[in-house]
């Protein structure tokens, strides 16, 4: 059940861009496979090559904390580490026995701080979980938060325990997950809820969603990202349909219809997506619950060059949700991301460049005409200048920039129409 895996190297995987979903630059997964056994988990999909029984044959990366501790002092790029991935939960049941995540947390909490010498500070961390087991490590994560930042993302889609027992049998109760959000918020960490996936005919009713969003709002989570169920043809879809047949056989026909197109992405019929999006917007109405991490908080996690890329992505989603044409912004983002990837490759190749080289490079590109040429959009270049040079903040409701010392009032907290993932 616990084949040790000592052959994954290095401990931290790093991308060429920050992940727009978790905001992370680095990823570190203590396990592979997941004992929470969610019926809809897309970690079962063939695409992820998880061998054996997904919820029983868990790979335990026991040597990962040691490798991480060795690696941290030599890093040159500041940005968040995400713990976990789409195919594992860092606080799944086997963490109680193996404590690999706790050891990783300790390594991250004791990362040296070289800011006094013009070097890098400790890295921020993003943890995505469905388990109250994370509370065992609240002490260590509070220390990490005090030195950099911690964002805890809790996945929760209902307040109905019957649904949890049928579809997320190994995960913590919904009440316990709300408690996680409450206690991490009280500890000063950033908190977000992943209210996904809403399952057709099961937890996608407006009243049920509204109760959930209201509970999250009462906990003052920083944002709640919502989305529907995707079912990739193959193992993921077959497993979900087996569970559905056992627990809600009356919904089989509806699900077969909604997922009949067998798209590789697992997306449902477009008509269902639109219907769900309208219901989610209705359920969130009046709550002023942000859809995504507010810009001010994003800045705690990312360096300016990554902040700008993620901000452009967020703006695309916000504009799309309001029916605004996003073609020019999308192509400007594509060009900016290509520019950033090239600069990052250059930075990684030349080990003598200082750790703030990329952000300084962006500043200089803004002050000459280089970034204007990349973006090929005067308004967007002015916008980037105000964000990066003046440190202005995007108000997600009005989509205007405000000075960073100005308070964004609750009214400005993005109760916006939004497009589904
Ligand atoms: S908690 Fe996440 S990784 Fe684990 S089974 Fe559920 S969806 Fe999959």
Provide tags for this entry.
42% helix, alpha/beta, 421 residues, binds iron/sulfur cluster, pyruvate-formate lyase- activating enzyme, 2 domains, 16 helices
Summary of the model, kept short:
The chain is 42% helix and 10% strand. With 421 residues, the protein is of the alpha/beta class.
Describe the 3D structure.
This protein starts with 12 loop residues before the first strand and ends in a 19-residue tail after the last strand. The chain is α/β, with parallel strands linked by helices and 421 residues long. Helix 7 (206-218) packs across helix 10 (270-284), helix 12 (304-321) packs antiparallel against helix 13 and helix 14 crosses helix 16. The longest helix is centred in the C-terminal third of the chain and has 23 residues, at 327-349. Helix content is 42%, strand content 10%. Strand 10 (393-395) and strand 11 form a beta hairpin. The protein is globular, with a radius of gyration of 21 Å. Residues 1-8 and 408-421 have low confidence and may be disordered. It binds iron/sulfur cluster (SF4). Iron/sulfur cluster (SF4) is lined by residues 34, 36-38, 41, 43, 87-89, 130, 171.
């Amino acid at each position: 059940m616990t084949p040790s895996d000592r052959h994954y190297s290095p401990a931290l995987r790093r991308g060429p861009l920050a992940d727009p979903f978790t905001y992370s630059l680095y990823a570190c997964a203590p396990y592979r496979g997941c004992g929470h056994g969610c019926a809809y988990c897309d970690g079962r999909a063939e695409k992820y090559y998880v061998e054996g029984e997904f919820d029983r044959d868990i790979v335990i990366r026991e040597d990962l904390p040691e490798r991480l501790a060795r690696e941290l002092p030599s890093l040159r790029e500041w940005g968040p580490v995400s713990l976990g991935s789409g195919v594992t939960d860092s606080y799944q049941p086997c963490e109680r026995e193996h404590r690999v995540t706790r050891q990783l947390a300790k390594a991250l909490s004791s990362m040296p701080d070289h800011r006094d010498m013009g070097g890098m500070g400790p890295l921020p961390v993003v943890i995505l979980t469905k388990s109250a087991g994370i509370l065992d490590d609240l002490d260590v994560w509070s220390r990490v938060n005090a030195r950099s930042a911690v964002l805890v993302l809790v996945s929760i889609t209902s307040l109905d325990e019957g649904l949890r027992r049928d579809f997320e049998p190994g995960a913590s109760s919904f009440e316990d997950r709300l408690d996680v959000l409450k206690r991490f918020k009280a500890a000063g960490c950033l908190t977000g809820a992943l209210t996904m996936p809403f399952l057709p005919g099961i937890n996608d009713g407006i009243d049920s969603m509204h109760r959930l969003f209201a509970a999250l709002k009462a906990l003052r989570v920083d944002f709640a990202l919502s989305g529907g169920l995707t079912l990739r043809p193959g193992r993921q879809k077959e497993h979900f349909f087996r569970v559905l047949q056992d627990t809600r056989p009356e919904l089989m026909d509806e699900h077969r219809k909604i997922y009949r197109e067998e798209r590789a992405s697992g997306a449902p019929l477009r008509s269902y997506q639109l219907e769900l999006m309208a219901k989610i917007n209705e359920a969130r109405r009046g709550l002023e619950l942000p859809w995504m991490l507010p810009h001010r908080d994003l800045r705690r996690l990312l360096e300016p060059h990554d902040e700008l890329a993620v901000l452009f992505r967020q703006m695309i989603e916000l504009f799309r949700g309001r029916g605004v044409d996003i073609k020019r912004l999308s192509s400007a983002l594509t060009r900016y991301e290509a520019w950033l990837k090239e600069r990052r490759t250059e930075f990684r190749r030349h080990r003598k460049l200082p750790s703030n080289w990329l952000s300084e490079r962006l500043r200089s590109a803004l002050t000459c005409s280089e970034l204007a040429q990349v973006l090929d959009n005067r308004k967007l270049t002015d916008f980037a200048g105000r964000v990066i040079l003046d440190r202005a903040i995007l108000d997600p409701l009005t989509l205007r920039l405000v000075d960073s010392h100005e308070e964004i009032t609750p009214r400005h907290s993005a109760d916006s129409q939004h497009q589904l993932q």
